[in-house]
Amino acid sequence: MRALAGTFVVFDGPDGSGKSTQFRRFADAARAAGIEVVEVREPGGTPIGEKMRAILLDPANAEMTVRTEMLLYMASRAQLYEQRIAPAMASGAMVLADRFVSSTLAYQGTAGGIDEDDIVAVGRVATGNHVPDLTVVFDVATEVALRRLSPLLDRMERKGHEFHARVRAGYLAQSRRWPERYAVVDSSTGPDEVTASLMRTVQSWCAARRGAPRAHAAPPAT
Questions:
Q1: Band of residue 222 on the pLDDT scale cut at 50, 70, 90
Q2: For residues 113 and 20, what is the distance between their CA atoms, to the nearest angstrom?
Q3: I want to staple 40 with a disulfide (CB 3.0 to 4.6 A). Which of 45, 50, 176, 200 is the partner?
Q4: DSSP 93-148
Q5: Based on the structure, what is the number of domains in the chain?
Q6: Which residue(s) pair with 96 in the sheet?
């Protein structure tokens, strides 16, 4: 855990993947190990970002285009990175984010049809050309994930099975494209089993990274 001080870690995955439970457990474990943790969520995390979140997730805004979605998510992200993420990392805290650019790539990119490299380019503008150290994707079969969702669905959760299946495929494609800064955890089992798998996965990532310089600059788009 102590190797994570000063890093930027993202938990992501399809709706219903169980990442929120693991987010809470991981943050608590990091604090117990003596690490300062700054928690942020997307969209939102700042007063301005929370206003954008309300617009993005409101089921009444059904006419919103995918490109508008993408740009609003990025605007919220730009505010979050400058106001909270960058200062926290500079102070030596671990930033733990509930979603980041990886979500936009999966939802508005793979599932929504916007070119992945266009999203990467806008993400560089939004974050000053910085990327997370580690993105943990919680992976679960779409059928299982949808059964876990609350009946009070927000606008994104209402998009149906085919859409969410593409979202899952998008996350897995990202993990193959950037294996050095992505890790996939099977979240189809019970919460305790997922937590144990998460801890092993992060430990392996830290061991592989030990001794290598940390760089937050985004790699060239391919």
A1: very low
A2: 26
A3: 45
A4: PEEEEE--HHHHIIIIIITT---HHHHHHHHHHHHTSB--SEEEEEE--HHHHHHH
A5: 1
A6: 9, 39
pLDDT in tens, 99-130: 999 999 999 999 999 999 999 999 999 999 99
Which residues, 6 or more positions from 165, have their beta carbon under 8 angstroms from its beta carbon? Answer: 142
Asked if the structure places residue 125 within a domain, the reply is yes
For residue 38, what is the domain's CATH number? 3.40.50.300
Query: Domain span at residue 80?
Result: 2-209
Q: What is the pTM of this model?
A: 0.87
Q: How far apart are CA 12 and CA 171, in angstroms?
A: 9
From first CA to last CA, the distance across the chain in angstroms is: 33
The SS3 assignment for 155 reads coil
32 to 25, 36, 92, 127, 203: CA distances (angstroms): 11, 9, 16, 30, 16
Contact criterion met (CB below 8 Å) for 11 and 96: yes
Contacts of residue 81, Cβ cutoff 8 Å, sequence gap at least 6:
126, 127, 128, 130
